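Appendix B. One record, verbatim.
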Amino acid sequence: MPRKKTENVLENAEAVEETSAVPEEAPKKGRGKTKAQEETAKETTSDANPADHGRENIGEGLPDAKDLLPKNKDTVAEDPGVVSPTADEPLVTKRDVLNMFEGMMRQMFKNAVGVDIPDPLPRMSWYDAMDNYGSDKPDIRFGMKIHEVTPLVKGCGFGVFDDSPYIGAIAVPGCAEYTRKQLDELTEWVKRPQVGAKGLVYVKLNPDGTVKSSVDKFYSPEKLQEIASACGAAAGDLLLLMCGEKRKTQTRLGVLRIEMGGRLGLRDPKVFAPLWIVDFPLLEWNDEDGRFYAMHHPFTAPKPEHEEWFYSDRKEDLERVCANAYDFVLNGTELGGGSIRIHNADMQKRMFEVLGIGPEEAEYKFGFIINAFKFGAPPHGGLAFGFDRVCALMGGQDTIRDYIAFPKNNQGRDVMIDSPSEIDQVQLDELQIACK
């Protein structure tokens, strides 16, 4: 596939670099870098990657690992949350991990399917992914972004919108000619338990310039045109709106966006649009339990510049902390994910404290890792890919059924080796297991 097509996809995505939606840096209060350290970090971003220094050729015929790194290191290093290590920083940073695995995937795409992916890959914050695509694994092969229209639609007498904290919309290109039957089918589709919406509001921007909506009673044609313009819709487009709690509504709109993209043929399996998703929230609050949960797992480190918020006792501060984590996303699928892990005993204890895990419970469940930190655990981080899913997408498939090493049917049975099979009574007796 020519590279030009992939570049057009990224132009359509409109700058998915790591973005302004990420919470601003927390006040340092003694944990930040000194001026000298900041200068050192600035100087090192243009140098060769630290992983290159002292590397030896350990095998004939094998490419040097430095050849896997992105060629444009200066651009990659511009990530504001990631700098090259200095004497006072960990030996392993997010930058190191992303550079290495991005280079690996670039080589894999080139050698396996003959595709040149962008160098460097775009980066998008979790916040922008949710706000614009309704998913933390966005498909950026096509536009149809989510737009918040809450201020525009409130106060016009439509009680459903007036009572909702968030109203969002997507503009579906060329679908203004949808019939009432098609719109009713689409409304029933979003009401399915898999989506969970209570309903769907539409605005049809007819090619002749007229406007037709399911809420004509409450909104004038001029107001509907104003809403459509805010969403970037044009004549011939169909505007679809949902309302409710912000993140849930965005997620539902994201599912609808993917569905409409599929119906319109915008999800070409031969087009590859990879990107990094970064700056996930470290914690998520549960109103029912009245406590925080780890969004990934309790061993993910917070971003260094958010540590002051992490040690704060204010709920608002803790909600702003971003995890030092990252996902590799391709065409709406997460192919791999990882993080920089906590390697400090005090920080790990603080994490358990924030999660409501008392000292005794923490010692009982996780004492092994807390005690290990006392002996000086090294800074560590990494990333794991689902290789079968990588192969499936490169092969143009949405399912891994034909690519997993030991395929199973929908009953979870491996028909190749007839597993699971009957267990011999001798084995059951040895394990002291009785089947009743």
